[in-house]
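The data are quoted verbatim here:
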Amino acid sequence: MSEDGRVAVTDEAIKRIKEMIVSGELTPGSRLPPEKDLAERLGLSRSSMREAVKALEVIRVLDVRRGDGTYVTSLEPRLLLEAISFVVDLHDDDSLVEIFAVRRALESYATGLAAQTADVADVAALDDEIASVSPDTDIESLVDHDVRFHAAIARLSGNGYLAGLLESLTSQTVRARVWRGLTQAGAVERTLVEHRAILDAIADHDTALAAAAAQVHISGIERWLRRARDA
């Protein structure tokens, strides 16, 4: 069989296993039938089934336990997004700009959702996070605050996959934010002012304003990064 033929058969095996999970026949934590039985049932070769299982193990859909069997993982968003995090970690400066563009769009959307759902306790927690940063804080501590602030907002979106994807993207852009903080004056004051604007919009449950404030905040870093790259 040609290489393309093997890939096509493996893709079919992956598709069939996915269908079993989507239909609920296989649920998080359940054990797959033995390889031989599953291959016969689906009308596929054992080799294609084996390759499919390997591929699904890499992206954390399946967990192969040697001597025990193959199980469906918890399928939690953070687990499934680990593969994306790995790919994002291989970025260069050009792709980092693109990552910020994606983050800007997703962060804006997540912040708009947070404005719809945040209650008094949520707003108070975000306010405490902002208040924990003093005007003379160092850049590393400021970036740590930035990560916590945006992660909390992403969780408030109520979309676990969105929050997980943003966490993956955010963790890979820390270097750029530290770099910007070290080379631009007023980084602490500017960040806190922008975070306060985001929080005020969330507190007012103003979806459009919250989304816009987040977009402006991320765009500032993205714009600086583009100029630094071009220079």
